[in-house]
């Protein structure tokens, strides 16, 4: 999802998960950012705005 639709779309999916507080999402987010840090840090406001 993140590779195809970008970090903002992936953040929205993660934020909308019914069990978003589960630690698996933190691990998944860490793995996504580690895999492509430039994509996740290119436009932080877009990622943070979507994930609220």
Structure characterization notes:
The protein is mainly alpha-helical. It has one domain. 75% of the residues lie in helices and 0% in strands. Helix 2 packs parallel to helix 5.
> What's the shape?
globular
Question: How much strand content do the residues show?
Answer: under 5%
**Sheet having the most strands:** none
Low-confidence stretches: none
Q: Measured on Cα atoms, how large is the radius of gyration?
A: 10 Å
Topology, please?
Layout: H1 2-5, H2 7-16, H3 23-35, H4 37-41, H5 44-50
Q: What are the salient characteristics of this protein?
A:
52 residues, mainly alpha
Brief sketch in words of this structure:
The protein has 52 residues and is an all-alpha fold. It contains 5 helices and no strands.
